[in-house]
């Protein structure tokens, strides 16, 4: 299922992004090999979402290079040229993105949400797309909901559909932006369970999360972001067990106090 | 009540039905195209200013004055009388149709704009991250959601336009209202004649209301609690 | 292109005449809007609180007025009004000819049209009043009237105001149709001027500008009112 090839699945270098005078990302270098599960933690406003959104060019970085598989882009001046836009679309085709608020298409059923991009972006055949989508829905435990409308699902179910939709991209890497933050506490578990399964399968994932226990358990690496810079980067044991920077220590202390 | 008079009058007024329907449907079609164009124009600043001014002028003035302006006003310009447009612009039918299209576009474009604003930003982003281009996003996500959102308001506009076609009778066109008006000056039995005409318009507009309620349910099942498409 | 001087206020200009016509548009619009407000309130009340017959009548009224062209309604009032007046006049033994004023016919016709949509707005606004606040009024012992005046109306007005602004705008534009009765308001006056001077474009454009001025100014007024009503709302401690 995973097409291993030479070079990292995903790599960012020198990434910078400002909103007006607010410098949100101040030079980010990060790369993920196939099979890496990287959790990104950090205080609110530290730039985690912005970093994640830069990868598929939902936000266009001011400087730096983003590479997904064989494609890479170094946009200048906060906008994409026409050729860059074509490359960006190809890169998106190799990524899956799971939003905090699910962002399912309200006018399409569960199944239609999953087959939309395969049909209308990748031009696969309907029969093939449907077969695969049903398998994916089975995997996230929602096969029986194939004809339901998103509005009729619980948050946890919607997020699992969104994960199936991301998987239908055949992504080289999947990006999660706080996938459980919009959920009621009792629904968090079902989504984490699905993500854990994906980790076990050896999927490449970059996960922004506040679920420290989960991050510690599934990640191969944890990065701590502070004011637009990566302050810690190591195995879960290193980052959670013996954080090098004062700020990471303070963040973790307050977080474990508050949440556990 | 004079039943023979009334049934004769119904038949007479109904001869204007084709023209009424013609103006109504063509002005809706033309207005919809122009409304979509106006909304697409709004993506840059100059286009936005033009579209906003257009809407301001056409929604801020009565349709009647727009009709007269086109039918009587444009004829005052020598260059228009010399141009290839003149054969059209001297004809009350084309003038009436043009005025209706321009007027409908202003209202419809605002309705569509409201619908577009109601499209969740996340739905568009989800389209972008799955690799869709602008055109695909417009066709598969934005427009379907926007039009369904705008349907109730638009069905009111459709009925408004049916009623608006009656105004072309003021520039000599013999639509249903034009025929009724002529019959009044012949017979002076205004009340019966006007009620006949009113009934026909009413029936059509009630059919539209029914149809749009049905369409709304069909197109937006996710808002009506049905789980199968 | 015509002589702009024609629009001046001097002895040869149409300025003063057009100004008066603009005031007439305003007058007939205000009268019609108020008619519509009274009617709309009654009808909304019938639909919300009336018995079955009243509800059915009120609903039929809104359906009919929604589906019939405004100009037919105006003709109906104008010609029909004449017929009625003539019938009464003849019955009372007066000699003709009989006529009714375009102002009255226009005011009633447009009031009737506007009343239908105003009733929808008011009904919607009433339904948007949180049930809890009404119950809160009940439990402190307010009667129906006090409840309406102190609790329902103030809240409903805030919701209704923007939509009522739109109703007013429609009334202004519909008032142009009253010109078919011969009432000398803006539309009628610019047609006369255009015919007399043969400067059609100039005068219809001038007419359009008059309407734009009226609609824009009243839009500002409604916005101001909206802001004030909202301020009061917050001030009341919500
Ligand atoms: N579109 C935008 N326009 C302007 N400022 C923005 C925009 N998006 C994010 N920001 C700002 O960038 C900074 C970083 O935001 P970001 O959403 O990346 O933080 P985050 O780490 O994801 O926080 P959280 O944990 O709350 O989600 C914040 O100060 C935010 O206000
Ligand atoms: Mg975030």
TrEMBL record, chain B:
Supply the alphabetized keyword list.
Answer: Cell inner membrane, Cell membrane, Membrane, Transmembrane, Transmembrane helix, Transport
Residues covered by the ABC transmembrane type-1 domain: 13-212
- Give me the Gene Ontology terms describing cellular component: ATP-binding cassette (ABC) transporter complex
- Indicate yes or no for the key word Cell inner membrane: yes
Q: What parts of the sequence cross the membrane?
A: 21-41, 61-80, 164-184, 190-209
**Where mainly found?**
membrane
Gene3D superfamilies, A to Z: MetI-like
Cellular localization per UniProt:
Cell inner membrane; Cell membrane
Task: Give the SUPFAM superfamilies listed for this entry.
Answer: MetI-like
Kindly indicate whether the keyword Transmembrane helix belongs to this entry: yes
Q: How does the UniProt record describe the way this protein sits in the membrane?
A: Multi-pass membrane protein
| Signal peptide feature range | none
One GO process term, biological-process aspect: amino acid transport
Q: Name one GO molecular function term.
A: transmembrane transporter activity
**UniProt-listed PANTHER family:** ARGININE ABC TRANSPORTER PERMEASE PROTEIN ARTM, MEMBRANE COMPONENT OF AMINO ACID ABC TRANSPORTER
For this chain, the family text in UniProt reads: Belongs to the binding-protein-dependent transport system permease family. HisMQ subfamily.
Descriptive protein name? ABC transporter permease subunit
Say which species the protein is native to.
Answer: Paracoccus litorisediminis
UniProtKB/TrEMBL annotation, chain C:
Q: Which Gene3D superfamilies match?
A: MetI-like (1.10.3720.10)
Pfam families assigned to the protein according to its UniProt record, in alphabetical order: BPD_transp_1
Molecular function (GO) terms for this protein are: transmembrane transporter activity
Q: Which residues cross the membrane?
A: 23-46, 58-78, 84-113, 201-222
Q: How does it sit in the membrane?
A: Multi-pass membrane protein
Among NCBIfam families, the record links this protein to: HEQRo_perm_3TM
Compartments in which it is found: Cell inner membrane; Cell membrane
* Superkingdom of source: Bacteria
The beginning of the lineage is: Bacteria, Pseudomonadati, Pseudomonadota, Alphaproteobacteria, Rhodobacterales
Name the major location.
membrane
Record family assignment: Belongs to the binding-protein-dependent transport system permease family. HisMQ subfamily.
Name of the protein this chain belongs to? ABC transporter permease subunit
Q: Which UniProt keywords apply?
A: Cell inner membrane, Cell membrane, Membrane, Transmembrane, Transmembrane helix, Transport
- Any one of the GO CC terms: ATP-binding cassette (ABC) transporter complex
Residue ranges annotated for the ABC transmembrane type-1 domain, each copy included: 22-222
């Amino acid at each position: 299922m995973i097409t291993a090839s030479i070079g990292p699945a995903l790599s960012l270098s020198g990434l910078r992004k400002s909103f007006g005078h607010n410098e949100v990302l101040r030079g980010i270098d990060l790369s993920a090999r196939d099979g890496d599960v990287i959790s990104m933690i950090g205080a609110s406003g530290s730039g985690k979402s912005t970093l994640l959104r830069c990868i598929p060019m939902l936000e266009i970085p001011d400087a730096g290079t983003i590479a997904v598989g064989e494609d890479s882009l170094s946009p200048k001046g906060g906008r994409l040229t026409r050729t860059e836009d074509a490359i960006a679309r190809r890169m998106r085709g190799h990524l899956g993105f799971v939003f905090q608020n699910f962002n399912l298409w309200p006018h399409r059923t569960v199944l239609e949400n999953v087959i939309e991009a395969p049909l209308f972006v990748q031009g696969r055949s309907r029969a093939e797309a449907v077969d695969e989508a049903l398998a994916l829905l089975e995997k996230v435990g929602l096969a029986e909901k194939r004809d339901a409308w998103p509005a009729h699902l619980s948050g946890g179910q919607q997020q699992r559909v969104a994960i199936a939709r991301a998987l239908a991209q055949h992504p080289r890497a999947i990006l999660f932006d706080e996938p459980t933050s919009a959920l009621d506490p009792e629904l968090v578990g079902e989504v984490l369970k699905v993500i854990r399964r994906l980790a076990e399968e050896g999927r490449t994932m970059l996960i922004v999360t506040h679920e420290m226990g989960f991050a510690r358990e599934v990640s191969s690496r944890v990065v701590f972001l502070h004011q637009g810079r990566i302050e810690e980067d190591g195995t879960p044991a290193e980052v959670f067990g013996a954080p090098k920077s004062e700020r990471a220590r303070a963040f973790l202390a307050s977080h474990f106090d508050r949440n556990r | 009540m004079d039943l023979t008079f009334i049934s004769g009058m119904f038949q007479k007024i109904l001869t204007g039905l084709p023209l009424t329907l013609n103006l109504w449907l063509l002005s809706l079609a033309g207005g919809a195209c122009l409304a979509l164009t106006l909304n697409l124009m709004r993506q840059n600043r100059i286009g936005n200013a033009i579209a906003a001014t257009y809407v301001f002028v056409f929604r801020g003035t009565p349709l009647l004055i727009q009709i007269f302006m086109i039918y009587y006003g444009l004829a005052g310009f020598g260059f228009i009388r010399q141009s290839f447009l003149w054969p059209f612009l001297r004809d009350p039918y084309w003038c009436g149709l043009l005025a209706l299209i321009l007027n409908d576009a202003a209202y419809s474009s605002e309705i569509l704009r409201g619908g577009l604003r109601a499209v969740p930003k996340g739905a568009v982003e989800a389209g972008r991250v799955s690799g869709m281009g602008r055109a695909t996003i417009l066709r598969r996500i934005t427009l379907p959601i926007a039009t369904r959102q705008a349907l109730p308001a638009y069905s009111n506009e459709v009925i408004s336009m049916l009623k608006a076609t009656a105004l072309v009778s003021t520039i000599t066109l013999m639509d249903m209202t034009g025929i009724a008006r002529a019959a009044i000056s012949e017979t002076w039995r205004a009340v019966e004649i006007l009620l006949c005409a009113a009934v026909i318009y009413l029936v059509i507009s009630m059919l539209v209301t029914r149809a749009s309620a049905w369409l709304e349910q069909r197109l937006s099942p996710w808002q009506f609690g049905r789980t199968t498409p | 292109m015509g002589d702009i001087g024609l629009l001046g206020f001097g002895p040869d200009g149409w300025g003063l005449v057009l100004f008066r016509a603009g005031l007439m548009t305003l007058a007939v619009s205000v009268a019609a809007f108020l008619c519509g407000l009274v009617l709309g309130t009654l009808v909304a009340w019938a639909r919300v609180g009336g018995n079955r017959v009243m509800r059915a009548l009120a609903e039929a009224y809104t359906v009919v007025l929604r589906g019939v062209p405004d100009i037919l309604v105006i003709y109906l009032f104008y010609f029909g009004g004449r017929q009625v007046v003539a019938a009464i006049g003849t019955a009372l033994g007066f000699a003709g000819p009989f006529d009714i004023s375009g102002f009255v016919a226009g005011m009633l016709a447009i009031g009737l049209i506007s009343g239908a949509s105003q009733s929808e707005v008011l009904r919607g606004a009433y339904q948007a009043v949180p049930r809890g606040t009404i119950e809160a009024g009940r439990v402190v012992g307010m009667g129906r009237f006090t409840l309406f005046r102190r609790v329902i109306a103030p809240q409903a007005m805030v919701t209704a105001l923007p939509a009522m602004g739109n109703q007013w705008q429609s009334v202004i534009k519909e008032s142009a149709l009253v010109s078919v009765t011969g009432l000398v308001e803006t539309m009628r006056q610019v047609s006369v001027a255009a015919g007399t001077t043969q400067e059609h474009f100039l005068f219809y454009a001038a007419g359009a500008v008059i309407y734009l001025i009226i609609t824009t100014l009243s839009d500002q007024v409604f916005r101001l009112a909206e802001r004030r009503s909202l301020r009061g709302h917050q001030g009341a401690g919500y």
